[in-house]
Amino acid sequence: MKKFLHLQLKFFTSLILRKYHPEIIAVSGSIGKTSTKEMIYSILSSRFSTRTSIKNYNNEIGVPLTIIGVESPGSSVLGWVKVFVRALNLYLYRDKNYPKYLVLEMGIDRPGDMDYLTRLAPPFIAVMTGVSHSHLEYFGSLNNIKKEKQVLIERVDRRGLSVLNYDNKESLAMAELSPARVLTYGLKSGADLLAQDVHFNASDGNYDIAGASFKLNHEGNIVPVIMPNILSEGGIYAALAATSVALHLGLNLMEIAAALRFCRLPSGRMQLLSGIKHTFIIDDTYNSSPESSIAALKVLGNIKIDINSSRYAILGDMLEIGAYSEDGHKLVGKEVFENHIDYLISVGERSRDIDRGAQAAGMSADFIFHFDKTEAAGLFIQDRLREGDVVLIKGSQGIRMEKIVKEIMEEPGRADELLVRQGSSWE
User: Fold this and answer.
1) Which of 76, 97, 312, 362 is 20 to 30 A from 9 via CA?
2) Domain positions in the chain
3) Which CATH superfamily is domain 271-426 in?
């Protein structure tokens, strides 16, 4: 049945794309795919007819559903019949509102995934956010992940564009494989699109933490950018990637800077939430890897807090990183200490290596606490928090760290609106 479903989706997707000829902007990478996709959509939709992937629809089923413009009916047979009727109608009758641009997220779990997705939806513009150890368990080595990801860049339309993260060496190395023009972005000198003088607006004791500002430099043309809803370097990288796409499609820097002001990241990606007892929560619970954890810890370490307040890192297991698991967790623990985090709370069996890494770096065991379950960790931190404390909460999907956020957020009644994985399928 699953094979039949894939064949039908592939068939209808091909018909629809041949009829409407939308330009496909495909986004992939080990971290930041969804944030980048959403930021591209946010900018382009203010000017063009644009559609983006629903939720995290980034696989052999999700990508066709986005192209058709429907949500997954799950296990409902009648629901799938309606999906195929909708697809057939799109082919038989012209929909004058069908989007000009499709911003599609393309994820990989196994070798061959990117080949399938790029044949299904050939990219006009390809964006590579970077390559890291995510999904190492299924690929064996970082180089194998790179080989799988780079298929996207190899398949980009010659008339289109490849957008590459200059600061990620695996991504940058793909430049020579692109048949199309290449634009690089980053925070390091040498990138075609450069973010300079990056600042996160944090202040002492007045509960005003969120916000980023930087100077956007493209070929010597510089414009200031203010993003009041962004609290991470990941958000800056997403903004730069989105700017690269928008420039290629004819927007100017001033237009883009104005649009970026209203951009925000999806739930569970470095979202600043109000916590109980007048505390702050940095909710980064969507997923986790060593690279993204280190980036989040740097943000936590740089936030100014009152002298009587504390920084907490609540970190869960990082899954699907295979043989790198022990070293990756220990490296994150080392970063906890080096970023001057006051307390480390770890959750899950693998996260014991975070504790070991922190202690080896010099952190006292008196400031490290370990729990097997998120529920116990949530109750523990709830009792310890004091006014002005800042708490980073992060872990892989399987460890469900958003449960801790819900335990200590100021408005748990808004969890469905503010947190990830709140649907009935996750209960």
Assistant:
1) 97
2) 2-185, 271-426
3) Mur ligase, C-terminal domain (3.90.190.20)
Banded pLDDT at 209 (limits 50, 70, 90): low
Cβ neighbourhood burial of 75 (10 Å; 0-12, 13-18, 19+): exposed
What's the CATH fold of domain 2-185? UDP-N-acetylmuramoyl-L-alanine:D-glutamate ligase (3.40.1190)
> Would you say 43 and 102 are in contact if contact means Cβ atoms under 8 Å apart?
no
Q: Which two tokens stand for residue 160?
A: 């289109």
- Residue of 337, 272, 268 lying closest to 298 (CA atoms): 337
Q: Where are the beta strands (DSSP E) in 90-180?
A: 101-105, 125-128, 161-165
Please tell me the distance from the alpha carbon of residue 236 to that of residue 259, in angstroms, as a whole number: 14
pLDDT over 50 at 203, yes or no: no
Pair 391, 381: CB distance under 8 Å: yes
Q: Which pTM was predicted? A: 0.87
Q: Dig out the tokens for 329 from the structure.
A: 């967790």
